[in-house]
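Thread: quick sanity check before group meeting

JM: Hey all, I'm pulling together slides for Thursday and realized we never actually wrote out the predicted structure for the chain we discussed last week. Dropping the sequence here so it's in one place. If anyone has concerns about the input, flag it before I start.
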Amino acid sequence: MPAHSTPLISKTSFLAGVQCPKLLWTRINDPEALPPADEATQGLSDHGHEVPGSDYSDLAIQDGQAAARAFAAVELNDLSPAEREQIRSDLLAYCRLDTQAMVDLVEALSELIA
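JM (edit): ok, ran it. Output follows.
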């Protein structure tokens, strides 16, 4: 993929930037300046990526950043119709599973507060 002047960021990074623009700038431009996460924070972060029943390992696109890169490739590159269709199919498979994971999360949280 050709170099692109606008960095692609994840939803998590975007939301962090909404809360604190300086943090987003640092994450992108000077990540070494950020202190490492302590063990408890890292454990929460690692656990946050685990959604029961949501296994992305069989998909061509396995995370949000890969999805953003794939979408950018379709939008910014001159691809054959077959390549575009493959990426579209891969994106739909990822988005289907990602959306279902969010639905499952909302249902689980709703049960906790009911």
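AS: nice. The two ends are 48 Å apart (CA to CA). DSSP finds five helices and no strands in the chain.
JM: adding both to the slides.
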